[in-house]
Specification:
Blueprint (H helix, E strand, L loop, with lengths): L17 H32 L1 H4 L5 H9 L3 H14 L15 H8 L5 H12 L7 H15 L4 H15 L17 E6 L5 E6 L2 H14 L15 H17 L16 E2 L2 H6 L4 E3 L3 E3 L1 H8 L3 E2 L2 E3 L5 E4 L3 E2 L3 H11 L15 E4 L14 E4 L1 H8 L4 E4 L5 E4 L27
Antiparallel strand pairs: 1-2, 3-4, 4-5, 6-9, 7-8, 10-11, 12-13
């Protein structure tokens, strides 16, 4: 009467009595909820194995979007729920219980669904930090028991009532007088070259920042019409990097040390080819070789001959890997980022070598494609590949876990023209 998934055969449903039909609806919902719990366990294992980085994606939600065709909001919700109701895997030591252990048991049993989990998670997140751990456990158990009896809206109302009782005074006001608002920026650079910063802008600076970043931080339509998987914070961070690239390439910035602003990467040619050792970014930061190859796609190269002790014996002249004429031809052909469904215009893209020049690839129109920063990173350290179609237009081959048939994809967003014969 039921299949392997616990679902009733369609041809037998008409034979059910009214009570049997209602009972089947309840059983079916429990099956869906257990399946959701199983999916969260799988996402939790994905997080524990750090498959996001292994497969070349910036975030777990981005990977889920391509893998199972979820919207950005749903992918982010599943990652958040998995973090709440699955075991925590520290770098060292055994796995720890999930942050919401009572809710985790209810999800596994099929007693509560995704909406219940979201209400419980939000309520627990809003509890006052000074609350005793035992009281937090009581609140979680109260909410889960209610979720087994009530719909999510009612559980949400109960959660707000509990919060009001436990935190009647709200957050205490600050004792220090307010300081005058000024422009401040502080940052710290980590050993791998990443930067953490915080700051504050006055009203004029804030308006300027939002004006510049707002158009750059718009969500991008992704492949197959699925919304941009990046969070708002990620979009704004990418927008800041894009704005810095535009400023660095404008030619209007003042010089420092006799030069226009440059991002300097120092490495032996063998490092670029073999990708075995880190490269030096700036003065002190070491970056992985794949990042060095990504930066070397469209850059200025200064050859240097070093002595046995590393002293420079001879410096060559700086040359661009992508000439102005070739850049114009790429813009004429691709009109913007060529990755499927990306809407980023050409002025915010880099020229990417399909076969890297360090590996013998030519800096030519048929070996290059325009990519935005997000998709340039994805191509350099994921299983996505690129080749040129018979008409001279770039085609993107997805990994097998995205499309088992690996059917070529193109970007229909930008108007493209076939590449002319010969190099510009």
């Amino acid at each position: 009467m039921f299949d392997s998934l616990g679902c009733m055969n369609e041809q037998e449903m008409w034979q059910l009595g009214d009570e049997e039909l209602l009972a089947a609806l309840v059983d079916g919902e429990a099956t869906l909820r257990r399946a959701y719990g199983y999916q969260l366990e799988l996402v939790g294992e994905l997080l524990a194995r750090n498959l996001t980085a292994v497969q070349g994606y910036r975030s777990p939600a981005h990977l889920l979007r391509d893998l199972v065709r979820l919207s950005r909001a749903e992918a982010e919700r599943r990652v958040t729920h998995a973090e709440a109701v699955t075991a925590v895997h520290p770098v060292t030591g055994p796995a720890l219980p999930p942050p919401l252990p009572v809710a985790a048991e209810a999800v596994s049993a099929g007693a509560i669904g995704a909406e219940h989990v979201e209400i419980i998670r939000r309520t627990m997140k809003d509890l006052p930090p000074q609350l005793d751990p035992q009281d937090r456990d009581v609140v979680e158990r109260t909410l889960v028991e209610a979720a087994c009896e009530l719909d999510p809206v009612a559980v949400g109302r109960l959660g707000r009532t509990l919060l009001a009782r436990l935190d009647q005074d709200g957050r205490p006001p600050a004792d220090t007088p307010p300081r005058p608002v000024g422009n401040e920026l502080r940052w710290a650079t980590r050993g791998d070259g990443e930067m953490v910063f915080k700051g504050r802008l006055d009203a004029e600076g804030a308006a300027l920042l939002t004006t510049v970043l707002s158009p750059l931080a718009k969500p991008r339509p992704a492949a197959n019409g699925v919304p941009d998987p990046r969070t708002q914070a990620e979009r704004q961070g990418d927008a800041l990097v894009d704005a810095l690239r535009l400023a660095a390439g404008s030619g209007d910035l003042p010089s420092e040390g006799g030069e226009r602003p440059n991002v300097v990467v120092t490495m032996p040619l063998e490092t670029l080819r073999e990708q075995l050792t880190p490269a030096l970014l700036g003065d002190t930061a070491l970056i992985p070789p794949w990042m060095a190859r990504r930066l070397a796609c469209d850059c200025g190269v200064i050859p240097a001959v070093l002595g046995s002790s590393g002293e420079p014996l001879d410096l060559g002249r700086k040359t661009r890997t992508v000439s102005t004429a070739l850049r114009r031809a790429l813009v004429l052909r691709d009109h913007g980022c060529a990755f499927p469904s990306c809407t980023i215009p050409a002025r915010w893209t880099d020229g990417h070598h399909i076969q890297h020049w360090a590996d013998g690839g030519f800096t030519s129109l048929e070996n290059m494609v325009l990519l935005c920063g997000v998709h340039h990173d994805l191509i350099h350290h994921s299983a996505w590949t690129i080749h040129m179609g018979g008409d001279g237009l770039p085609e993107f081959i997805p990994p097998r876990f995205v499309d088992p048939q690996q059917r070529p994809r193109r970007n229909p967003v930008h108007p493209t023209v076939p590449a002319p014969t010969g190099d510009p």
